[in-house]
Amino acid sequence: MKQAVNLLLFGPSGTGKTPLATGVAYALLEQGIRVKYVSAVNLVQQLQVARNELPLPEALTRLDRYAVLILDDIGDVRQSEQEAHVLFELIAHRYETGSLVAKASGKKPPWQGGITPEKICHPTEQGNCRQPDRIVDAEYPAHPNQVWAGDITYLRTQAGWMYLAIVMDLHSRKMIGWAMDKRMTTALVERAMQMTITLRNPGKGLIFHSDRGSQYTSKR
């Protein structure tokens, strides 16, 4: 609990995910640790209402009273762009404030991929890249808005596959910007960056690190 470790339980129906999650909840409660076990669909709907009627951060802060938040059937969330934003704001918020347990049915988790910085290259550079990997060699940034990393992954939702572009601040390891779309385009990456820049307003000297996918190397 002190490290705010997260846990993902996934697999076919009937393999014991619910008893395992319930057992974890009871064991934590017996130790005096506050736990909230809630349907992911219901919680996202509640947060969506909060997002429309009052500041969402206030609603997310109310969940901080629980050291562990267990989301039941996270794969059942119908992820429109608005609901996806709420869901990932919740995940980003819990990243540093408490542990999150997510349960999903299926042979694979409802999302795959992640942040996998590899190289640093100029966006217009093509062919072999031989730039030094300053991200790996350097220590973690001492302050926010010094080094950001970006990547694209995909999510399986009831509405079909959706692509998610995110931006992470390597100082806090927190997702600070994102965008979703049914297509993996340069515009998807641009929207994630525009959101992040608007929210953070970084100064000069910021380093942005990504892989060399066409969405990031586009001259657009």
Any overview of this molecule?
It is a single chain. The protein is an alpha/beta fold and 220 residues long. It has 2 domains: 7-105, 3-Layer(aba) Sandwich (Rossmann fold); 113-217, 2-Layer Sandwich (Nucleotidyltransferase, domain 5), CATH 3.30.420.10. Residues 109-127 have low confidence and may be disordered. The protein has helices spanning 17-30, 40-53, 56-62, 81-97, 134-137, 186-200, 214-217, and strands at 7-11, 35-39, 68-72, 99-105, 111-112, 147-157, 160-169, 174-181, 207-209. The chain has 7 helices and 9 strands, in the order βαβααβαββαβββαβα.
Whole-number mean pLDDT: 77
Q: Alpha-carbon distance between the termini?
A: 45 Å
User: What would CATH call the homologous superfamily of the largest domain?
Assistant: Ribonuclease H-like superfamily/Ribonuclease H
Total DSSP helices: 7
Radius of gyration: 19 Å
The CATH architecture designation of the largest domain is 2-Layer Sandwich
Quote the CATH topology of the largest domain.
Nucleotidyltransferase, domain 5
Oligomer: single chain
Spatial shape:
globular
Q: Estimate what percentage of residues fall within beta strands.
A: 25-35%
**SSE order in H/E notation?**
EHEHHEHEEHEEEHEH
Briefly, what CATH class of the largest domain? Alpha Beta
Low-confidence parts: 109-127
The percent of residues in helical segments reads 25-40%
Compute the number of structural domains: 2
Q: Please outline the major beta sheet.
A: 5 strands, mixed
